[in-house]
Amino acid sequence: MTEEQVLRWIINAVADGWTIEPTYPHESADKAASLDKEGYHALTLARSELDVSISVWGSDELHVDVPETYDWDVMVRGTRICMYCGAVGNTVRIGFAGRCCPECREEHKAKVEFSGWTS
């Protein structure tokens, strides 16, 4: 993803009703922003071509895959997609903020929730 793509994503998100504020007091929102909409939270970085990202968490506080082109409906549907097998339906927490179907949880739990790990 490029700086331009991140900035375009932010513009489209704000136009779609997301609130925005700078993440850090020493940087403008076009460099590091926190956005919120209907319980969803996004963090964006567009500092340089080497420091660009968009991270989104759903209203359940679990990770949501972010489309390169802003699309609210894709992100909402993303709260129902298993990150391991791609099944669509009920998802549960795995690891820190991952989501998976109940069937995949037991298989992958030991790989991401090991001794000393806490939720």
Strand content: 25-35%
Any idea what the radius of gyration is? 16 Å
Average of the residue pLDDT scores: 92
**Domains (count):** 2
Q: What is the topology, as strand order, of the major beta sheet? A: 1-2-3-4-5
Keywords for this structure?
single chain, 119 residues, alpha+beta, 2 domains, five-stranded antiparallel sheet, two-stranded antiparallel sheet, 3 helices, globular
Provide an overview of this structure.
A 5-stranded antiparallel β-sheet has the order 1-2-3-4-5. It has a two-stranded antiparallel ribbon with strand order 6-7. It has helices at 3-15, 72-78, 102-112, and strands at residues 19-22, 32-37, 40-48, 51-57, 63-64, 92-94, 98-100. The chain is an alpha+beta fold and 119 residues long. It has 2 domains: 1-78, no CATH class; 80-119, no CATH class. Strand 2 and strand 3 (40-48) form a beta hairpin.
Write the layout of secondary structure elements.
Blueprint lengths: L2 H13 L3 E4 L9 E6 L2 E9 L2 E7 L5 E2 L7 H7 L13 E3 L3 E3 L1 H11 L7
Antiparallel strand pairs: 1-2, 2-3, 3-4, 4-5, 6-7
